[in-house]
Design goal:
Elements (H helix, E strand, L loop, with lengths): L3 H12 L13 E3 L2 E3 L2 H21 L27 H10 L17
Antiparallel strand pairs: 1-2
Length: 113
């Protein structure tokens, strides 16, 4: 990718509503707790997994490598850094969203957000 414009083009292509994914649901899930077929419990298991995976992966990195500058050296023009957004910035952005219209590809209505 040569520019930020190319990054946005690629993201728009990936997220485009033209590229609808087959929306089949997961009927059951097998976990350490056993077989789960209740949709709410399946959703909760996925939520728990995605909330915990970062911490689990990070704990596998030796303490000596916790500082990126020790293992990531040099100049990388193809990378980008996004500074954290404040609560006020997120709130203002959500409040500026158009309240009518269709849902996004994730099918979450702006009204719900």
């Amino acid at each position: 990718m040569n520019s930020i414009k190319d990054v946005w083009k690629a993201l728009n292509k990936i997220c485009s509503s033209k590229n609808k994914v087959n929306k089949s649901s997961i009927n059951h899930l097998t976990t350490s707790r056993g077989h789960i077929d209740n949709q709410s419990e399946i959703a909760e298991e996925f939520n728990k997994f995605f909330c915990e995976i970062g911490k689990k992966l990070a704990s596998a990195i030796p303490a000596s490598q916790n500082e990126f500058s020790k293992f990531l050296r040099g100049y990388f023009p193809q990378c980008m850094f996004l500074s954290p957004a404040s609560n006020i910035e997120v709130f203002n952005l959500i409040m500026s969203l158009r309240k009518t219209g269709s849902t996004s590809p994730d099918e979450i209505s702006v009204k719900l957000i």
